[in-house]
Amino acid sequence: IPSILHLFLRFITCLLEQDAVVKIEVLHKPFACFQKSKYGDILLVHFEGFLESNGTMFHSR
């Protein structure tokens, strides 16, 4: 899970070109993770966000 979170944070950082506040909320974190990502893996990440300008929700689907 830490690798997925790191990838997600890097993606968000690339999207933001100005100083902004990003709130990240973890909705589910498994107690034990037996299958961890490694370099070269392809990951599917879903996220939702809200535009600061008007509050419109967007997502990665």
Automatic annotation (TrEMBL):
<dbReference type="GO" id="GO:0003755">
    <property type="term" value="F:peptidyl-prolyl cis-trans isomerase activity"/>
</dbReference>
<dbReference type="InterPro" id="IPR046357">
    <property type="entry name" value="PPIase_dom_sf"/>
</dbReference>
<keyword id="KW-0732">Signal</keyword>
<protein>
    <submittedName>
        <fullName>Uncharacterized protein</fullName>
    </submittedName>
</protein>
<dbReference type="InterPro" id="IPR052273">
    <property type="entry name" value="PPIase_FKBP"/>
</dbReference>
<feature type="signal peptide">
    <location>
        <begin position="1"/>
        <end position="20"/>
    </location>
</feature>
<keyword id="KW-0677">Repeat</keyword>
